[in-house]
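Milestone 3.1: sequence recovery, worked example.
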């Protein structure tokens, strides 16, 4: 695709004749009438500008387009300035344009130049700019709300188009570490309820990287099974990790087997996230053959839920210390219970976790903030629970949302 010279300017005279019946001069009737006028005005304006630029090209020696058949980029004649119709989605509404068609004088091939002039790919009906706006809108609120807001302001666009935009824009987004930022980050996972997926919840896994000027950026994202592989999170970043002058310092709770080939290049600090424990415990209980929702299962899970629940508003040091002591005590009791029941997987899981379980609370006590990913998850979760999703659909909407909040994506 050639480029239309950018330094040329074309002046367009636009006369507008429009007949409309208004029953009153009230604000709402004027707005309503304008919304009827808008599509005509917009359509005519687009058409006029396109024809003017095309005329300019036809009048100059070299064209910004070439014949798709023979490559000729100088000799063309007009076929039509108002040919077959085509539709384009602006961010006011769909407009119908009459196609501009030229014929190659060398080989006789006919081709449309409308989308070329618009700077759009052939066949596409939604321009990238519109696509991005719809995607961001759909990622920041539910599709239903997006549609509603659009309609209130005269944007006649349906939920399906918004959904498609989110999917396309999200699918086209890649996240990776940035070699110019700090070689330090955190990876963590959180459960996401995906409505419409019958099986147990999925885990959203996110890798964040610290930025030189403070703050974080998203460097990897995936949605998969609990205890699933963390590989996808780092897939695109392995070469960048190798390129850092200092070892990459990663704070995580997840599976880090992917780094075995990167010894000396990656240092891993493990942090237990209390949030995970009752969920991972359900997995080890299953391995121990404990029936889901049985009396024993309920006892262990409920106890762990209580032990792991933190009350964020408590800021008195003595109270926190007493709370931690009581939680430790309860944890010992539930481990003893599992031991007598012969739940070996559960016991060994809890024994492993015990050491770092309360570090987060104790750190909070010393004024240190806990995982930065934690805050990020709160931002995301609001949106993911909203409606029916496929894993892919939930991943895409989360990508757009995170890119907006953390990586400077805008529309
Ligand atoms: Zn040709």
């Amino acid at each position: 695709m050639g480029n239309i010279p950018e330094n040329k300017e074309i002046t367009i005279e636009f006369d507008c004749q429009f007949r409309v019946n208004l029953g009153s001069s009230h604000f709402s009737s004027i707005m309503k009438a304008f919304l009827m006028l808008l599509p005509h005005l917009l359509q005519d304006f687009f058409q006029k500008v396109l024809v003017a630029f095309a005329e300019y090209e036809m009048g100059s020696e070299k064209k910004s387009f070439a014949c798709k058949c023979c490559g000729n980029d100088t000799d063309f004649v007009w076929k039509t300035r108002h040919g077959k119709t085509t539709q384009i989605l602006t961010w006011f509404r769909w407009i119908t344009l009459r196609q501009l068609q030229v014929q190659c004088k060398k080989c006789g091939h006919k081709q449309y130049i409308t989308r070329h002039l618009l700077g759009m790919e052939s066949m596409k009906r939604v321009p990238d700019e519109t696509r991005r706006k719809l995607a961001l809108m759909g990622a920041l609120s539910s599709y239903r709300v997006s549609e509603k807001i659009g309609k209130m302001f005269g944007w006649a666009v349906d939920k399906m188009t918004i959904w498609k935009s989110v999917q396309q824009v999200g699918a086209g987004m890649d996240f990776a570490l940035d070699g110019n930022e700090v070689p330090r980050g955190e990876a963590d996972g959180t459960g996401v309820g995906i409505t419409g997926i019958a099986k147990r919840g999925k885990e959203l896994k996110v890798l964040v990287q610290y930025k030189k000027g403070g703050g974080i950026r998203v460097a990897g994202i995936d949605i998969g099974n609990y205890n699933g592989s963390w590989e996808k999170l780092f897939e695109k970043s392995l070469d960048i990790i190798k390129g850092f002058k200092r070892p990459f310092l990663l704070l995580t709770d997840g599976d880090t087997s992917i780094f075995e080939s990167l010894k000396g290049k990656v240092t891993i600090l493990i942090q237990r996230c209390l949030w995970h424990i009752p969920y991972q415990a359900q997995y080890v209980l299953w391995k121990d053959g404990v029936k889901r929702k049985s009396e024993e299962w309920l006892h262990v899970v409920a106890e762990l839920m209580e032990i792991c629940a933190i009350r964020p508003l408590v800021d008195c040091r003595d109270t926190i210390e007493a709370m931690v002591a009581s939680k430790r005590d309860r944890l010992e009791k539930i481990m003893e219970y599992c031991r007598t029941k012969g739940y070996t997987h559960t016991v060994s899981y809890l024994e492993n976790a015990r050491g770092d379980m309360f570090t987060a609370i104790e750190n909070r006590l010393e004024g240190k903030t806990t995982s930065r990913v934690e805050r990020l998850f709160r931002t995301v979760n609001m949106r993911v629970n909203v409606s029916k999703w496929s894993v892919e659909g939930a991943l895409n909407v989360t990508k757009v949302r995170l890119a907006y909040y953390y990586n400077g994506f805008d529309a």
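Strands lie at 76-80, 85-89, 94-98, 101-104, 110-112, 184-192, 202-210, 216-224, 248-252, 266-270. The chain has a mean pLDDT of 85.
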